[in-house]
Amino acid sequence: MDAQPMTGHAYTLLGLILGFGVGLLHFASLKRVTAMYLSGTATARAVALQLGRLALVAVLLVFLALKGAMPLLAGALGLLLARIVVLRLNRSEE
Predict the structure, then answer these.
(1) Residue 71: Cβ within 10 Å count
(2) How confident is the model at residue 32 (pLDDT cuts 50, 70, 90)?
(3) How wide is the angle at C-alpha 94 spanned by C-alphas 80 and 79, nearest 5°?
(4) Which of 9, 20, 48, 78 is deepest in the core (most CB within 10 A)?
(5) CB atoms < 10 A from the CB of 53, how many?
(6) Among candidate residues 10, 32, 15, the one with its CA nearest the CA of residue 80
(7) What pLDDT was estimated at residue 4?
């Protein structure tokens, strides 16, 4: 039996899942980056972490853009949903 190539719907679902996962990492690490900047002692590490966060999102979006418009939009939606989740979790901590 031959392996079936992924269809457009499968890439769209993959985009949503990957966008959500990368978004969770991206927005959850923002609190740590901010604390590192404010401490003033780990500025180089904060810059490196910030660049890593941005590079990860860029790689994801380029990958999804190569798969088509719908996977890219689904990935962006996943990022936005992850942002909402992280903001609500952090709001409940305060």
Answers:
(1) 25
(2) confident
(3) 10
(4) 78
(5) 19
(6) 15
(7) 61
Residue showing tokens 């719907």 = 9
Mean pLDDT of 25-49: 89
How many other CB atoms sit within 10 Å of the CB of residue 41?
9
Q: Note the pTM of the prediction, 2 decimals.
A: 0.85
**Cβ neighbours for 27, distance < 8 A, ≥ 6 positions apart:** 82, 83, 86, 87
Check pLDDT > 70 for residue 93: no
Dihedral angle of Cα 64, 14, 86, 45, to the nearest 10 degrees: -50
SS3 49: helix
